[in-house]
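Q: Got a minute? One more chain.
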Amino acid sequence: MLRHGGLPRLFGGVRAPSTLGSFLRAFTWGHVRQLQSATRAFLCNLAAHTGLVPKTDEVVFVDIDSKVKQVYGPAKQGASFGYTKVRGLHFQIVTVKTGMCAPVIVATRLRKGSAGSGKGAASLLREALATVRAMGITAQIIVRADSAYFSHKVVAACRKTGTRFSLAAAVTKTIRTAVETIDPAAWTPIKYTDAIWDDEEQRWISDAETAEIPFTAFTSKKKTFHTTARLIVRRVKRLNPKTVPEGQSELFAVWRHHVIFTDSPFVLAQAEPMHREHAQVEQVFADLEDSALAHLPSGKFTANAAWLTLAATAYNLTRATGHLASTFHARARTGTIRRHLIHVPARIATGARRLTLHMPQRWRWADDFTDLWTTTGQRMQT
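A: Always. Here it is, folded:
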């Protein structure tokens, strides 16, 4: 952070917000696609130089999800009412993560507010998976998504690229019938909220249980889209009897069921909690809204689409900054990284025909900043 008047001493060609807005409003959809292609190449280079996504893990998770960003006023192109009942624009993101790193955004797409969550997901997923492979990742990929993405197109995109899938599924009549065929002895208690471990019986005492059965999905589609995989079911005891759907059997009156359709190579005790970790994508949404996506600034749709792409690039750059700084910052929120390592007060001094930035004394994050600075090939003087 610089005092007023210090910016032109360190940076050249600084654009005013109005100039940047004029530039983005000149974008066509073709320009947005070119920008997305450039950011994919940039991300591959960023990962290669910083090790942002480890390549040593045996499995990599690709998560896809969407969110409606509320806007105000009907003048914004594409703004309309969707399932959230608020006027907004609906954007999709795809992230990649491993057990050793925080999520990294590999693809984005902006749609009109009334678009369904899964609209265009298959094509976006194909682009994302191509980017993940271009980053040099050769590990097994598992695509995770919620029930909005449970479709034959998404599964076909996964199968075509040789990746596994783990998709939540709505409890429809067909799936209810399948769940009712599960043997009562097949249900296994799992570590869940308020679970207690029984040392004598070597099992969890819990209000949640899991089981699995084979299941063939999309039988109403062409035969080429019929997919046989595992149906993993987690059931949790109902605490409110009023939530029982009308006309349900006793099985569904006592339990709430959460269903996953997957071809994961992992056993039941591993596959089910792995899918639940998909919820971490919500933290990415929170980080984006804490920075560039605090608002979509333009009334023009293509300008906002470009803004979304740049917001994802800024997110990835901040993630790389934290990764190079310390183990703590590698998994911290991007707002924390900005507060600790980027929004740092510095005093400018001129001497011997060079500029010197004097950093704070007795600064808690000085060692992390020094590691970041030296890792990028710079030199600190103390």
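A: The mean pLDDT is 88.
Q: Perfect, thanks.
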